[in-house]
Specification:
287 residues; binds NADP nicotinamide-adenine-dinucleotide phosphate; six-stranded mixed sheet; globular; Rossmann fold
C-alpha cells in the first residue's frame, strides 16, 4: 500500500480526496489518498514525513503553497516562477515540488472554453497565489497583455515586479481597483479571470462580484476560478450580459490530473475525477 494526501488548513471542504481516490480506484492502484490537515507549526514535520518509502507525494493547498517551497529538495521551473507549489513528489526520499495550477488553468481554458490566449488581452482580478499561477500561464501561452487589478494595490504591484521576467513577450501591468480602472481595462480585453475569493459560497462576500458587472461586454470570456458555487454572482451577471463563462471546477480537476500523472506516471481519468467531484458537491449541497 502507498499513500498520497492533501496538506492544508483547514481541509474540511477539500474535494481532492474524493476525485483523486476515484482516479486511483479506476486504475486499480494500491494507493490511499488522505486528507492531512496541517497547521503552520506542523508543516515542516508533515513535509519531512513525505520522504517515507510508502508515501508517493502530496498536494499542498492554502495556506502552505509558498512556505512549503523552503522544505523541499528540488523545485520545478514553473513552481519557481510562480513562487508557489501545489504538488510534491517523493522520489526515493528526495522531494521535488511542482505547480500544476498553471497547466490546470490552461487546459480548462483551451479544452472547456475553446479559448487560445495567444495574442489576446487579459484582465486579472486578484493578486494572490492563484493570480500568480494564472499570470505565468497566460505569459507562457502568449497573451499580448495582462492587467492585474487588486483590492490591495501594493500586492498587485509586487506581483507585476516579481513576474516581470516571465513576461518576455507580454505587457504586464497593475491598476488600483476602482470603477474607472475596471472600465478602462475590461473594455478592451478578451478575457477576465477572477482570482479573488469574492463570490465563494459561505464567505461574507458570497453574493458579491469582484468586478463591477456593467463593464462586461458580449463576446469576452469571463473565467472564475471559484468552484463553489458552480455559478458565482460574477458568472451569472456575465452570462446575462452575453459573455462566455467558465467556472473553476475543470481547472481543479485538471491540476489534480497533472499531479496524478507526476506521482504515478499514468494518465489520469479526468472524466471519472470530474464525476466524483460533482457527486461530492451534490452530496454537500443536499446536507
Ligand atoms: P489568496 O492568495 O488568499 O488571494 C486572495 C485574493 O482575493 C487576493 O487578491 C485578495 O485581495 C482577494 N480578496 C479577498 N477578499 C476580497 C474582498 N472582499 N474584496 C476584494 N478582493 C478580495 O488566495 P488564492 O490561493 O490566490 O485563491 C484565490 C481564489 O482562487 C480562491 O477562491 C480559491 O479557491 C480559488 N482557486 C481555485 C483553483 C481551482 O483549481 N479552481 C485553484 C487555486 C485557487 P487582497 O490582496 O487585497 O487581500
Amino acid at each position: 500500500m502507498r499513500y498520497l494526501g492533501v496538506i492544508g488548513h483547514p481541509l474540511k471542504r477539500s474535494l481532492s480526496p474524493f476525485f483523486q481516490q476515484a482516479a486511483i480506484d479506476q486504475l486499480g492502484l494500491d494507493i490511499v489518498y488522505e486528507a492531512w490537515p496541517t497547521t503552520e507549526e506542523g508543516l515542516a514535520a508533515r513535509v519531512k514525513g513525505l520522504r517515507a518509502p510508502a508515501v508517493l507525494g502530496a498536494n499542498v493547498t492554502i495556506p502552505h503553497k509558498e512556505a512549503a517551497l523552503a522544505l523541499v529538495d528540488e523545485v520545478d521551473d514553473l513552481a519557481r516562477k510562480v513562487g508557489a507549489l501545489n504538488t510534491i513528489a517523493n522520489r526515493e526520499g528526495l522531494l521535488r515540488a511542482y505547480n500544476t495550477d498553471v497547466a490546470g488553468f490552461l487546459r480548462a481554458l483551451r479544452d472547456d472554453a475553446g479559448f487560445d490566449p495567444a495574442g489576446r488581452r487579459a484582465v486579472i482580478a486578484g493578486a494572490g497565489g492563484a493570480a500568480r499561477a494564472v499570470v505565468v500561464a497566460l505569459c507562457q501561452a502568449g497573451a499580448t497583455s495582462i492587467t492585474v487589478i487588486n483590492r490591495t494595490p501594493e500586492r498587485a504591484a509586487k506581483l507585476v515586479a516579481d513576474l516581470r521576467s516571465v513576461a518576455e513577450h507580454t505587457v504586464l501591468d497593475a491598476l488600483s481597483a476602482g470603477g474607472a480602472a475596471w472600465a478602462a481595462a475590461v473594455s478592451g480585453c478578451d478575457l477576465l479571470v477572477n482570482c479573488t475569493s469574492v463570490g465563494s459560497a459561505g464567505s461574507a462576500e458570497e453574493s458579491e462580484s469582484p468586478v463591477p458587472v456593467d463593464v462586461i461586454h458580449p463576446g469576452m470570456l469571463v473565467y472564475d476560478l471559484i468552484y463553489r458555487p458552480a455559478e458565482t454572482p460574477l458568472l451569472a451577471a456575465a452570462r446575462g450580459r452575453g459573455a462566455q463563462v467558465l467556472g473553476g471546477l475543470p481547472m481543479l480537476i485538471y491540476q489534480g490530473a497533472e499531479s496524478f500523472r507526476i506521482w504515478t506516471g499514468r494518465e489520469a481519468p479526468a472524466g471519472i475525477m470530474l464525476a466524483a467531484a460533482q457527486k461530492a458537491l451534490a452530496e454537500e449541497a443536499g446536507r
